[in-house]
Amino acid sequence: MNYLMFELLKTSICISIPIILIALLKNKILCKYTHRLNYIICILITIRMLFISSIGIYLPFENNIILESVHSIKKSGTNNIVNYIKIIFCIWLFGVIYIVIKNICKQILFYKKIQNINHIVIDTEIIKILEEEKKALNIRRYINISKVDGLSSPALIGIIKNKIIIPNNDYDKEQLKWIFRHELIHFKRKDNLLKLILMIASAIHWFNPLVKILKVYFGEQCELSCDEKVIKRFSKDEIKEYAFVLVNTLRYRNTLKTTMFSSQFNTNGVDIIKGRVESMLSCKKRKKGTFIVVFLLFISALSVISFNNTIVVQAGETSLYSSESMNNGNVINLCGNTINLYEDREYENLTQEEKQLGLVLFKTGKYSSVTIGSNFSLAYALLPSS
Which UniProt keyword terms apply here (predicted)? Predict the structure, then answer.
């Protein structure tokens, strides 16, 4: 438990650095690059948030244990610390469960609301326009279309089974073309799935106030990069048509709010719409930043990997020790390269043989640290030599 909280805090600090850089550089440096690059940065940070523990990679080199590097640490008064960690863990877990349940309830409530106010589109002309746009984007999967009362902006809803919902208004052929292309690009990029991952990552790091900055920036760059993809290779006049369709959705009053697991054509913010239109009509050429993407991918991968020459024990290896010392198979709890022995009993209540087991295991060189007892009263750790 203490290991988990330590790794969680370390990860949260780690992802806070790029979020702070985004807040400082988005209007000075990042704005010079494509929205696609900015969106990829948000995705990489989001995925990194999920890895609260490093992935250990075993390097098959001989591990020589130097006795001088073995430190036996006798701990006293750790019960209070352990209790505090348990309380903190419970508070954190409650926060995670609350946020996840809250978002799931919102999603269920949204589907219940539209259940009686949505009308499946059977108009062959509308379906034909959708099929043409699917063909242009090389999408073969069947996607339903429904008109929904009280909705101001078209949206793509669902994660596994996607559906396009549009307001129950009259649209001409050109407007529908732009609307469907926008939503189909969201579909092709799996943006709703990425938003689900963002929700889970945000729930894990709910205590970090900087996560809110990432969520806002993620949403902005998701829509801006989608616009960027929609207008690619289109003429200036066609881009103006698309911008007009986007602005035109502001006329309608939204009485039905979508959830975060949906991708809307219009984000219902005048300032955001203004920024999207200005970005589309801007003649300024943005940098692709291919090298930056490769570099960030490398750094992200490196940050979740730990290289070591220790061996991770498999569950079957516990049979190497006698049944008496194994305490009915419940003595060992593996946590990365750390082994916690006899978590169900305090160190003072262990036999001498059981206490010696920790040192024996540590001297094998298979583990970077071994802790003994429920209150971790005794720990063996391999410290780096100076």
Answer: Membrane, Transmembrane, Transmembrane helix
